[in-house]
Specification:
This protein is mainly alpha-helical and 434 residues long. Among the domains are: 165-252, no CATH class; 254-310. The protein has helices at 10-19, 26-32, 37-45, 75-106, 110-120, 127-130, 133-145, 151-158, 162-167, 181-190, 199-208, 243-252, 254-268, 275-287, 292-301, 303-306, 318-329, 336-345, 368-382, 389-393, 398-405, 421-427, and strands at 212-214, 220-222, 232-234, 237-239. Helix 14 runs antiparallel to helix 15 (292-301).
Length: 434
């Protein structure tokens, strides 16, 4: 596609803004449509705005206290101590969820925020196993820092990330008793993808990752005594490999770029990647030394991304729906607790993916329970008396409003309520689609 061209259609502009971020107000869509695609992508890909404009909870950088020695405690004191720790952990993750969803609503770096969500669902960690909210926040800082940066740098960070090391049991991965959890997921989910390695590669990689652990304060620690220093044979290469060599070997394997581009296609375009284009984009991605801006620019500039058949092909995640509704209506979050509960009722709990594979997305978001929860959320949003729907509409006609809010060709509107066209658009099933 010619990126110097200007797409003056509201539908085309809505599509780019939605897919590179979240739903936006009709005013934002209308004002943006005069920009060339190149200028819009430049603004999105090279934003200097922070992903989160909000100050995080005050405890996020507190050093985690060593676990108390409970050997000499009575059973009652043990229960009391555990309950206190559990209560603090539950309160902290609640505060972190509120901070993050409020940050997404108010961010001025939508692509950075969306890519942070993408990486959170790629290098997954569950709070209920990690337990320490400080570690979930620290991991998220890595995702924010590398959101549209370099995958190799992010991968290197993740192999020293306490939350991931705890979640995938690498702190008990020792040369005398290797644990293969991190190695297996690194090959299958995080880098190469299924079918690109042998069981022997998992065992050899686990040996290379021995010693990557955490100390009593849950800070990264490389334990030399637990590391296997002997020669390994990994993916056709032999040597005395450790963390740095592992990263280099994974990045050198052609399947890594292909796996990531396939995943980006499913996230941004449709559930059916084009193998020929994926191979071409993956080659450019490798040649750029895994520069995310390069591959994202190719993807967002492609005919496949802009083709009318790609409009409305993706189902919004619960977080996308919540964030987008607030941005469309141009209202700040009033009650963070209610938004966290709404997300939970739609079966997406931030920092708590269902398993190491993360949220599958797509039609898995929709069932009888979640569909009702989605409708209930939109209804509650539209009851906000502080919203001036006529002000939001501006000078746009009803068809223009729907083009700015709903995927082209899918603007099914229920007119039985005889209400404002913005309300009708948000109630439409098409608003659930990206």
């Amino acid at each position: 596609m010619n990126t110097d061209a200007t797409d003056n259609t509201l539908a085309g502009t809505r599509h780019v803004l939605q897919r590179t971020g979240f739903s936006e107000s009709v005013t934002t869509v209308d004002q943006t449509r005069a920009m060339s695609l190149a200028a819009l992508l430049e603004r999105r890909l090279h934003s200097t705005e922070p992903v989160s404009p909000l100050t995080p909870p005050g405890w996020v950088n507190d050093r985690i206290a060593a676990r108390p020695d409970m050997k000499a405690m009575s059973d009652m004191d043990k229960r009391s101590t555990r309950a206190t720790i559990r209560q603090r952990q539950n309160q902290q993750i609640k505060e972190l969820r509120i901070w993050w969803i409020n940050s997404l609503i108010q961010t001025r770096n939508p692509l950075g925020a969306r890519m942070t969500l993408f990486w959170q669902n790629h290098f997954t960690s569950q709070h209920r196993k990690v337990r320490h909210s400080q570690l979930m926040y620290q991991q998220q800082q890595s995702f924010m820092r590398h959101a549209t940066g370099n995958f190799g740098a992010l991968l290197d960070d993740m192999l020293r990330d306490p939350a991931l090391l705890i979640y995938l049991d690498n702190r008990v991965n020792r040369r005398k008793k290797p644990n293969e959890n991190l190695a297996r997921e690194l090959l299958e989910l995080f880098a190469l993808g299924e079918g690109q390695y042998r069981e022997k590669d998992i065992r050899e990689l686990a040996r290379a990752l021995t010693g990557l652990s955490v100390d009593k304060h849950m800070e990264f620690r490389f334990n030399q005594q637990h590391h296997d220093p002997d020669e390994k044979n990994l993916l056709g290469s032999s040597g005395h490999f450790g963390q740095e060599e592992v990263v280099a070997i994974l990045l050198a394997h052609p399947a890594t770029a292909t796996h990531l581009v396939n995943k980006l296609w499913r996230h941004f375009i449709s559930e059916t990647p084009d193998a020929r284009l994926v191979d071409s984009w993956a080659a450019a991605y490798r040649d750029s030394d895994y520069n995310m801006k390069v591959v994202l620019d190719i993807l967002f500039s492609s005919d496949a991304f802009h083709h009318p058949d790609s409009h409305g092909r993706l189902i919004k995640s619960p977080v996308e729906l919540i964030v987008g509704a607030h941005r469309v209506l141009d209202v700040p979050p009033v009650d963070g607790n209610s938004l966290v509960r709404a997300s939970r009722s739609m079966q997406q709990i931030l920092y708590e993916p269902p398993n190491v594979q993360g949220w599958v997305g797509g039609t898995h978001w929709i069932n009888a329970h979640t569909l009702l929860a989605r409708k209930r959320f939109v209804t509650l949003m539209l009851r906000n008396d502080a919203i001036s729907f006529n002000t939001l509409q501006g000078a746009l006609t009803e068809p223009e409003l729907h083009a700015a809010l709903l995927p082209a060709g899918l603007s099914t509107i229920d007119r039985s309520r005889n209400e404002h066209p913005i309300k009708m658009a948000l109630r439409s099933p098409a608003f659930q689609l990206s």
